[in-house]
Amino acid sequence: MKRRTMRNALLVIGAGWLVSFSPGSAFSGKRPSAKTSLEMAFAGAIIENRIHDVFSVAPNPNFDAIEGESEFLRVSRERTSDGQLKLTHWHIGLRTAIGRPRSGEHIKNWMERYPKSITALIASVFHDLIDDVHVGTMNSYALISRAFDSTLQPKNVAVPKDAVARAERRLVDAKPNDASYPFWHVYLAKLRTILGHPKQEFLSQVLEGLDIEPDFALAEMAANYFLPKWHGDATQLEAYAAVVTERLKAQHGSGVYVRIYWQAFKAQYEYDLFKRSNVDWQRMKPAINDLLTKFPSPENTNIGALFACLAGDRAETARLIFHPDFAFIANIWRSDGPHAVCESWARMPELPGRRT
């Protein structure tokens, strides 16, 4: 199957059309389970749910425990098997909690008990910002409280820029002396993407943060800035990916290149990634191997298989999708349809004199 045909097939399925296979179809494998593996289901989610529940459900949160866990995860730099810092999941839980009823009262008490806590300050900044955007649209609330994704278009997000600017100034004024708290940079990058901060200043701040903590979270968050729908284009995104990949090579090999384009897939391109961006498959293919060597996980294997299929590399698709450790993860493929198409294609015999 030619690359364009494969892309079009995935786009049709991704758009929600019904696809059926004839009885003679080459697809003959087991229907993939929509369940994620236990590792993926628990490693990050337990952390997210724990901080969310402690903070938003408990009538009197244990701020000593909250501070202690945050500090432990910062210092230990423990990761889940896909390479994400456990602190990333901790902050996802915090982010979903700070918009809950009574969260403002809890944050106030937290800051009184720990007045120098950068984590409490971050919670306060984003709680106040969420309060400000409640007067706007649901999309603006989603942008502040959750992640950048493909459903959010800047032109449709009525975020009050003055409120975002106040939040950005509070974070800048509270910058840790040694800037050792990595998520200060992640949250600042998010605000500056919304504001359209000057590009060179933005990139300098991101590179500073990556020198302190060479982690996927900041690399992925900052990639949103360079997407065409925000402040960049395909050329700038590829340049950013190349710079950051080189910057983090000693720690992660070239695997961060995959993670940056995984964010680009989620936040804008989806199944059009290899058609509309400047992603380089000759760079991506060894980067997938680097990522899986250092962080072998179901999530990274699924991402690699999806990208290989979109790139039209049938041999690499087959290698990853039929790997013994492969476990289908529905939310990466968006549904089981695209996975079925790629698996069916990967099973097709190679025609003499033709390579796909």
Task: Note down, in words, how this protein is organized.
By secondary structure, this protein is mostly helical. It has helices at residues 3-14, 38-42, 45-56, 63-76, 86-97, 103-113, 118-133, 138-145, 161-173, 182-195, 199-212, 216-223, 234-247, 249-252, 255-269, 273-276, 281-294, 298-311, 314-321, 330-333, 336-347. Helix 6 (103-113) runs antiparallel to helix 7 (118-133) and helix 10 runs parallel beside helix 12 (216-223). The longest helix has 16 residues, at 118-133. The radius of gyration is 21 Å and the shape is globular.
Which structural class matches the secondary elements?
mainly alpha
Q: What is the distance, rounded to the nearest whole angstrom, between the alpha carbons of the first and last residues? A: 7 Å
Order of helices and strands: HHHHHHHHHHHHHHHHHHHHH
Overall geometry comes to globular
Tell me the fraction of residues in β-strands, as a range: under 5%
Low-confidence stretches: 11-41
User: What is the number of strand segments?
Assistant: 0
Number of helices: 21
Rounded to the nearest angstrom, the radius of gyration is 21 Å
What is the mean predicted local confidence, pLDDT? 81
The main sheet comes to: none
Helix proportion range: 55-70%
